[in-house]
Amino acid sequence: MLALSWTGMLSAYFGARSTILIILFALGSTVFIVLLKNDTETADSLALVAVISISVFLLLSTTLASNNLSGADVNEEFYLFSQILERGTWLWNAGFGNLPYNSALSITILPTVLSIVSSLDGLSIFKFVLPILFSLVPVMLYKSYRQILAPSASFMAVFLFMSYSGFIDMPSLGRQEIAEILLVLLMMFSLSGSRSGRGAGIIVTMILSLGLIVAHYSIAYIFLFLMLVSIAAARIFPDRAKRFLDKFTLLLWGVAALAWYAYISAGLSLLGAISSFSLVLGGLGGLSNPATRPAEVQLALAFNATVGPLHLLNRAIQYLVVMSLIIGFFVLLKRKNTNAAQKKILPLMAGSLSLMLATVALPSFGSLLNFSRFFHIALLFVSPCFPIGIGWLVSSVGAIFRVIPVKRVRITFPDRPVAAALLFSYLLFSSGWVWAVAMDPLPTSVTFDWNRMRGSEKIGIQLDYYGWYIVGPDKEAALWLKMYSSNSRVVCADYVSIFHVLAVYDNRDPIQGDNYELGQIPFVKCTATGSYLYLSVFNTVSGYGTGYGVQLWPVAEYSNGLSSQNRIFSDGATVYQSAGT
């Protein structure tokens, strides 16, 4: 029955794209938190069906919101994939500006192989295949959490992970999708302890850990940090902690990572890591100033919170969830009868919590990978702390009311209904659904509130929309450039256009070649005769163009000098050609 319901709602979503169906389905699925019985054999099966259903719905709510790619980095990833598919070879030593994207086989070799084997086009691979593969991550997390938690508690932990906006927006980062699949597979394999033999176990562990290196450099660095924490904790507290990887495997992994990032990516990721470390050290002087934290950290801590009951409730829910994670960790740490799985995951929890703390405490740390990504990755390991922490909080509050005499009133605090209400509220606020329904002055959800973002009077909010979605007129103008423009002539466009729609549909290298002029004043190369000026819908509507670091400049400084005779394409987005031949 649940499977039929899932299929019917999925069909309805495809037909009407009504986001309310996703919300209603998630609401109905949270009932499992209350209904699951720890002593029933069907508890795991019911929980797994609910997990995979919610996972697919939340991910498809992002990727199906547009017929084109959605997000930022995914467009550059798609460009690299299309180049490899067109050439039929992977230029392993080719750079991508100052970004080591080419070293990530998860967005170069893997989608190319999938496209060739399945005959699917690249758009289908990035919009459907990769997100559907990533939807298995919550399932594997549930299997991992079951090594230390009961079915209902494991479901709570996984639901918390899926409720965070970083999970919903993950289809915009193809390389991180694959890296997290490998990371969670490695965790599930290690915590389960189901090795057919020591030799076979070492081989599987090595393959999965090496896969992290070639999948995503940022995840690999975080993995290295967690492994070092694991080794240190096992040496200092041998009765409470256990190494996640043995020394030989970790040493071999470190050598492979150093060789890959120094040779294949031409040292770009290593230089990036060194420069990030220097950035963190340089920002230590602003420890006491909240304004030195990135905007996402300030938003998470509500330093500049908007006044209003819903915003106060959102802040309370966010703080309560984080408090439950921290309390749950210490409660789990105090348990005496810890099994092998708990001994392995405890150091990973400690390392993940320290990363979360560092994004708040250190001024420049949160901007390295951005706060939401750090928090999302940390939830992979610390989510099991939530049901433990919320259970402790509920029991503590109940104990207070039992001590304080209350006449004619019987107050009880069952932990499962409280957790269900808290988790679902967290999903509604984190996804931005509440702000869409309440018509908040500052819409934030590109999934649920895209229409208001597109029509907002604030340029920054408009830019969030057009920077996330590729709209039809922009796509058509880019395709026209690809078909009819001369590849030997420069195309001038702003930063967002070059790295989004033009990277996907004009298929020119946005960094290496001389065929693009970045959207920074002045457009030196666009003074040449015959060069093209590409103005997107955002440029036309807002009157501004974007530069590196989301700097804005007035489009009129360039377009006013071009008459209608210079306009060679116009359909929302416009293409001009300067005078001359």
Describe this structure in words.
The chain has helices at residues 2-16, 19-29, 31-35, 43-63, 73-87, 109-118, 122-134, 137-145, 151-163, 165-168, 174-192, 198-215, 217-236, 247-264, 268-282, 295-301, 309-334, 340-361, 366-369, 371-382, 385-403, 415-430, 433-437, 450-454, 459-468, 472-484, 495-499, 501-505, 537-542, 556-559; strands spanning 491-492, 516-517, 532-535, 544-546, 552-554, 567-571, 573-577. By secondary structure, it is mainly α. Among the domains are: 91-118 and 173-282, no CATH class; 470-577. The strands form two sheets. A five-stranded mixed sheet has the order 2-1-3-7-6. The chain has a two-stranded antiparallel sheet with strand order 4-5. A hairpin with a 1-residue loop joins strand 6 (567-571) and strand 7 (573-577). Helix 13 runs antiparallel to helix 14 (247-264). The longest helix is centred in the middle third of the chain and has 26 residues, at 309-334. It is globular, with a radius of gyration of 25 Å. The termini are far apart. The model is unreliable at 1-18 (pLDDT under 50).
